[in-house]
Write a structure and sequence with these properties.
alpha/beta; Phosphatidylinositol Transfer Protein Sec14p; two-stranded antiparallel ribbon; five-stranded mixed β-sheet
């Protein structure tokens, strides 16, 4: 999308945006312009300023202009402070490509019965001795950023995460340090403009509890209430994520993991220029009015991932 925003939402979704997000189609352009004018006065933020990017943040903040400003600043600050996730995201890079080809993070075609986008993670489907948690999270960021860029309906209805934890081991758990968990939680809850509506986990081994309890400790109360752990009970999962939304391997009718993965490899390739260009956006703390922010301010920890001993 980019450039001037053209609304492709159905009348029902336009109404939902009004009811749930305080979006006023008559005021929308003025709100977008207000944020754009504000960004011009922020010497430290280099942000995308097209209508669609700004609108996503407005929707994510229910059109509170103050919250939108905070979230945009937070998003670009996180991006600059997490270089391991947000630089060198070329989908043609051999190493990144190999991880993308594992199909670990797959937005599913279509929407659930509430019109929400479902993203399916296969959290234990890689060998932690071969792929680091940071590399895995970087591959997730590539796909998630493209979803958000292309997902107009989801910007109104929100996103549901479903994850298969089969294969999750102590090796995975060891890499998911409290500092890494905190970084994930801050970025996901306070940086991204998406509206997370539910977290669903199946096939949860003992190692999952260790990892998840760390992550959960950094979650907002509202989010904790949206967690559903289904064990090996697919029928329980279907109550939260309709069966027809899910891949064939999980009793669904929405394509196979292989087909969905191939679709996303093509999308990632199609957006290669966008991903490469995206690296230039972020913050320059030396230009921030007032006191520069540090990783300690943001994540409560010293240094970035580079200083964390994760291998």
């Amino acid at each position: 999308m980019g450039g001037e925003y053209v609304c492709n939402l159905s009348p029902e979704l336009i109404q939902r945006a009004k009811d749930e997000l305080n979006e006023d189609p008559e005021r929308r352009a003025a709100d977008i312009q207000h944020i754009r004018d504000w960004l011009k006065k922020q010497p430290h933020i280099k942000a995308r300023t097209d209508d669609w990017t700004i609108l996503r943040f407005l929707r994510g903040c229910k059109f509170s202009l103050e919250k939108t400003k905070q979230k945009i600043d937070m998003f670009y600050t996180c991006k600059s402070m997490c270089p391991e996730w947000y630089t060198n995201r070329d989908p043609q890079d051999k190493r990144l490509r190999a991880i993308l080809e594992m199909g670990l993070f797959l937005p599913l075609p279509g929407y659930d019965y509430l019109g929400r986008k479902v993203v399916f993670g296969r959290w234990g489907a890689y060998d932690p001795a071969e792929v680091s948690m940071c590399e895995f999270l970087k591959a997730c960021s590539v796909i998630f950023d493209i979803v958000i860029e292309e997902e107009e309906q989801g910007s109104v209805t929100g996103v549901v995460i479903a994850g298969d934890c089969k294969g999750l081991s102590v090796g995975h758990a060891v890499q998911f340090t409290p500092s890494l968990a905190k970084q994930c939680a801050v970025l996901w809850q306070e940086g991204y403009p998406m509206r997370p509506k539910g977290l669903n986990y199946i096939n949860t081994p003992a190692a999952f509890d260790t990892v998840f309890n760390i992550f959960k400790s950094f979650m907002k109360e509202k989010m904790k209430k949206r967690i559903h752990i289904h064990g090996s009970d697919l029928e329980s999962l279907y109550k939260e994520v309709p069966r027809e939304c899910l891949p064939v391997e999980y009793g669904g009718t929405n394509g196979t993991i292989e087909e969905i993965k191939d679709y996303w490899l093509k999308r990632v390739d199609a957006r290669r220029d966008w991903l490469l260009e995206d690296e230039k956006y972020g913050v320059d703390e030396s230009k921030r009015p007032g006191k520069p922010k540090t990783t300690v301010d943001l994540f409560g920890i010293e240094g970035s991932f580079r200083k964390l001993n994760i291998d």
